[in-house]
Amino acid sequence: MMEKWNVIQFPGMKAGKGGTEAREELSVRLKQWLGSRKAVQMVASRKWVLLLTFMGFLLGKAMILNELSPFAIAYFAVIAFMRRDYIIPVGAALLAGSLFAPFPVPLIVASEIAIFYLLFRGLESYDRAELSYAPTMVFTTTFMVKLFAVVIGSSFSWYAMLMLTMDSILSFVLTLVFIQAIPIFTYRKKKFSLKNEEILCLIILLASVMTGAVGWTIQSLSVEHMLSRYLILIFALVGGAPLGASVGVITGLILSLADMSAVYQMSLLAFAGMLAGMLREGKRAAVALGMLLGSSILSIYLGGPGDVMNSLWETCAAIVLFMLTPKSLMTAISKYVPGTQDHTKSQHEYAKRIRDITAERVTRFSQVFRQLSRSFDQMSGAGEQVQKEGGMDHFMNAVAEGTCASCFKRTQCWDAKFIQTYKYMTDVMSTIEGNPEISGKQIPVDWNRVCAKPEEVLEVMRAQYGLHQHNMQWKRQIIDSRQLVAEQLSGVSQVMEDLAKEIQRESDEMVQQEEQIRDALESLGLSIHSIEIINLEAGNVEIEIVHAYTRGFDECRKMIAPLISDVLDEHIAVLHETMTDPRQGLATVTFGSAKTFEVTTGVAAAAKGGDVMSGDSFSTVELGNGTFAVALSDGMGNGERARMESSAALNILEQLLQSGMDEKLAIKSVNSVLMLRSPEEMYATVDMALIDEYTAETTFMKIGSTPSFIKRGQEVIQVSASNLPIGIIKDIEVDLVTVQLQPGDILIMMTDGIYDAPGYAVNKELWMKRLIQEIDTDDPQDLADCLLESVIRHQQHEILDDMTVVVGKVEHFRPEWATLRVPGINRMERPRTVS
Predict the structure, then answer these.
(1) For the residues of 415-432, what is the DSSP string, one character each?
(2) Backbone angles phi, psi at 599, to 5 degrees
(3) What is the rounded CA–CA span in Å between residue 230 and residue 314?
């Protein structure tokens, strides 16, 4: 025996080891193999092939009305297409099972399998073996074999032709059913979600398998009755009354077709399944009690004393099997049934897994963009350094290779007196840099005494200086472009990082809070189908409710939103509303935190000289996340070109802010874009106010713009900042001014056409404050119109520059419907941390 162990060799084992060492290494490798994924897959594969083989044996024996045998060929066809590696054991099991059926069923099953296999191989040879051909192939095979059996037999009649046609049609239909059901047993269906049709197909398959047990008894107890009750108990516990009753009807129907004496089983199993499912909340014991009561009650009405006792013992045997069933099997089945807690949990885990993967990938992309931003930033810094260091060498090389190369004093200047010559060249270059138009007469006397060709050297250096200036301009533009790319990549990286954090936010399961809202809504007589709390964070509430609506009543705004507002002690409004199923009157409504403040705006504008096109642009838009933006931009000059610059600045800035980019970075990005988009000197001012609709805190971004004013009663407050317009210099300084607005405050923003109207001899700030105080109106549009009219009248009805004024009024948001208070409904205690 030792010699045998010494001879055994495995891949990676070294020869020459002793018996003890060989056995130890063999033991380690066997453990590694058994623990490997491949070993687990092989064991699981054997388990499923044994199950499918046993099912094939019962389906080979199964018959309908003791004449039709459509199960075997349909099962074999699906196995041949889906799991060809199982075709031999399954085919042998079908043939073995058919031996227990009446003659000539074994010959018919064998003939059908043989002919189908030949057709299957024929399609394979032409690469046309597709699963969609399986039902047609089964129908053709069954019809041919049964027709041949009828023709050569002694019972050729119209009844025989009708039965063979019915057998072929049933085989066709069962093939379609098995195509949906068998993948569950072959691990080909990876998703933990089954449609209702797939569940019904699975039940039909299991009931068909139980048909093969018809006629088998244990101590006068029918095996198929015990198995059918056991199957109903499992599905009743998993899916409740609807699924339990459905399984009972389908199972009873198929069993009654196999045994006409058991027709009453259909009603018995359906009633018992429904009663067992209704008691599912009591777990296994209650479900078993429901099955026992349901089967016993109908047995008394439908059978005699002997049948009642047999039915009772059959139910008890099924209950024993049900109690011995491991919980893991129940959990595995419930994952496939929609509506169960395990299915919801599996779907939630799958969604969480997908969310984590997506967030991880977005984070990686964010890191890539951040690294690219650093690379471009380093490149722009290195370019500036090379630009500074390479200027002197550029002049020296040009002069040495041009004028000095043909000079007779070249050796004396550049070899014997290199340092002195280099100093003289530096002085001349500095002189040219200070005065590019220097002439030969202005050359220093010392240089004329040292150099043999001073005017030629001066001409070469002036020409090279002009080329150098153009070269430096393009290099600066390239560096600015790199800096813009670096800033943009940095902003995109930040946005993607924030997106990854938002994706990873996972709402906690708040079953208790959902039930509290459901009870409150149902106390008003509303029909609530489902409630899902996505977020309960104060100021960021999001709740999705599916309810039955009545056309014209608008319950979601008049009743549901006010009641939720009272329960949460926070004003809740309707965010989105969609009709889920108009035929059943179902609507899906998303409720969320309503804004505390609202902004109403008014605009008045006039172009220079009464022209149609103004160089000013304005915008009032919701940026999202409860932020309202009031923006104004003044392009350089007047007309269409100025309008293009100002509108481009506002549009780009709004889009960057809506994407979630930081305000300062967004302003710098717009500045870089305006600098690079045109070689001409074009710039635009930006005056933007970002109003938080929950707190009324307002952030002003003023880039080269005129002061803004806040009218609070009779008081006028000035808001100003000192910045250059964007598009002029590269490194722009962005100052953000934050002001806390109050309800009733009126924000007034204007371009320089209005602010500079009184002229330079007048204190513009005091003049504008007095003008605003004199306008006696709180309506934003009226105030804008009056202000523009007053300025034009002050200028003797002449419009000397483009004029635009934007007015916004901050007011408390007043809901359309007041909070609804219902006695007995308590305020909700929100979780401390909501992710």
Answers:
(1) IITHHHHHHHHHHHHHHH
(2) -120, 125
(3) 10
User: Residue 344: what pLDDT?
Assistant: 61
Q: What is the pLDDT of residue 172?
A: 94
**What is the spatial order of strands in the sheet that 684-692 belongs to?**
616-624, 627-635, 684-692, 697-703, 736-740
| Residue found under tokens 């069923």 | 105
pLDDT cut 70: percent of the chain above it: 74
CA pair distance 322, 238, nearest whole angstrom:
12
Most confidently modeled range among 25-29, 156-160, 305-309, 829-833: 156-160
Average pLDDT, the chain: 77
Compute CA distances 196 → 209, 243, 340, whole Å.
20, 10, 13
Q: Would you place residue 656 in the very low, low, confident or very high pLDDT band (cuts 50, 70, 90)? A: confident
**Contact assessment for residue 611 and residue 637, using Cβ atoms and an 8 Å cutoff:** no
Of 620, 607, 609, 614, nearest to 645 by C-alpha is: 614
* Residue-wise burial string across 421-443, b where 16 or more C-beta atoms lie within 10 A, e elsewhere: beebbeebbebbeeeeebeeeeb
Full strand arrangement of the beta sheet holding 572-581: 528-535, 542-548, 586-593, 572-581
- From 262, 478, 493, 265, select the one nearest 370 (Cα to Cα): 493
Contact 120, 73 (CB under 8 A): no
Distance CA 36, CA 33 (A): 5
The pair of structure tokens assigned to 706 is 């005129």
β-strands 616-624, 586-593 pairing: unpaired
pLDDT band of 786, cuts 50, 70, 90: very high
Which of 391-395, 411-415, 436-440, 820-824 shows the lowest per-residue confidence on average (mean pLDDT)?
391-395
* 3-state per-residue secondary structure call for 750-813: ECHHHHCCCCCCCCHHHHHHHHHHHCCCCCHHHHHHHHHHHHHHHCCCCCCCCEEEEEEEEEEC
C-alpha span between 658 and 624 (Å, rounded): 7
pLDDT tens across 629-638, in order? 888 888 776 7
- Asked if the model's pLDDT at residue 677 lies above 80, the reply is no
- For residue 509 the two structure tokens come to 């399961």
Query: How many angstroms separate the CA atoms of 183 and 178, rounded?
Result: 8
Three-class SS of 232-297: HHHHHHHHHHHHHHHHHHHHHHHHHHHCHHHCCHHHHHHHHHHHHHHCHHHHHHHHHHHHHHHHHH
Distance CA 696, CA 628 (A): 10
477-513 residue pLDDT tens? 677 666 667 766 677 777 777 777 766 655 445 667 8
Whole-model pTM over 0.70: no
Q: What is the layout of strands, in order, in the sheet containing 708-712?
A: 597-606, 803-812, 746-750, 708-712, 715-719
Tokens of 514: 């959902």
Q: Which amino acid is at 55?
A: M
Return phi, psi of residue 91, to 5°: -60, -40
pLDDT of the residue at 441 = 66
Is the model more confident about 625 or about 590? Answer: 590
691, 599 contact by CB (below 8 A): yes
Residue with token string 């099924």 = 318
Dump the DSSP string for 165-185: HHHHHHHHHHHHHHHHHGGGT
Banded pLDDT at 518 (limits 50, 70, 90) = confident
- Number of Cα atoms under 13 Å in the Cβ half of residue 252: 21
Q: Which of 585, 591, 593 is nearest to 560 (CA)?
A: 591
Q: Does residue 393 surpass a pLDDT of 80?
A: no
Could you give the dihedral angle defined by the CA atoms of residues 230, 232, 238 and 243, in that order, rounded to the nearest 10 degrees? 170
**Unique residue bearing structure tokens 């119209």:** 158
Report how far apart the first and last C-alpha atoms of the chain are (Å, whole number). 65
